Hints:
CATH topology of the largest domain: Rossmann fold
Structural class: alpha/beta
Strand content: 15-25%
Strand order of the largest sheet: 3-2-1-4-5-6-7
Number of helices: 21
Helix content: 40-55%
Mean pLDDT: 90
Number of domains: 2
CATH superfamily of the largest domain: Glycogen Phosphorylase B
Radius of gyration: 21 Å
Shape: globular
Amino acid sequence: MKKSCLIIAGEKSGEEHCETFYPELISAFPHCDFFGVGGDLMIKRGFRTLFHLKEFSSWGISEVVLRIPFYFNALKKIESEVERTGCQVAILIDFQTFNLKLATKLSAKGVKVLYYVAPQAWAWKAWRAQVLAKTVDTLFTILPFEKEWFLARGVKQVHSINHPLLRSYQDRLNHFNRVVTHFEREGGIKRIVLLPGSRNFEVRNLLPEFLAAIEILKKEFRIEVGVVTTSSVENRIYLPYLNRIEKQFKSEDLADALLWADVALAASGTVTLTCALFQLPTVVAYKTSILNEFIYENFISYKGPISLANILHQAPALFPELVQNGCSGFNIAKIVKCWLTDRPLYEKIISQLKLTADFSKGSDGPEVKKMIEVLSSSGGVV
């Protein structure tokens, strides 16, 4: 039987993480059947999708609840395909709630589970560490403090790796130092890039607030606006706003967008760490449903920062976080105005951000070597 490997990248950030090791896996096992959940980048490399991440991803407790029947059916279909192909190795990328359930089912079938990007169990649902200890062959952690945390809770094989973003942008980040230019730029133009998220609901909630902030700032500054769009968001959601935006970047051109900008307005998520690596002062925004807000406020004990940049730097205010009702055009504009006028403050933030790359490094070497080792020892004909 042909060698096969299940990969679950259930959202855009998961696919981007996958890109840091998937090309090397293909090179090492050119005839292996890589299948599961992924997006356009993976499909272009020959990945066989059971589900596209567009139909698969959701966010927030209320949205997940509504899609429970879909996820149960997806679990059954994936299990069935694992059995049909004789698959013995699975790489599950982030996407915690679904992937932990799948890990339990796969482990019971004797499949070796490599869990890439550890769940943030240290923030909430610490019991997830026990599930990982029972079901996962190797857990890959991307935040420096996570390895010891999971080892202390019974996870036997924990591999601390560089954050995938370091590898994704390695060529652009080598010897990178942001040059402050907007204080002297001809015409006084200030460049602001909008990063409203990779999910439909994020863009619906955040893009109007971002543009409200821009309108306020335009009363005092000459502003040039850019936006990063992604294929995981329906184009019709962007359309009403594009006539108010001068430059458009695709998600694969994110680095170019960050190098172009002086300030970013970003949805909470992996992209905030990318902004930090490119030393770009960023306002982090987060808006969800009233139900999700109620659940988080009343049933989740974690009260720390939500931005990866702030978590890594252990500096809750490095990237201001505007949540729910606090996420308004007025509040965003107030913060950005300070950055556009106070050069010492702006340069102080950049100086702090220069440490981000060091804070994002792991201690155990590249993940792909471990993946190749496990896949090599699995059954199937190469």
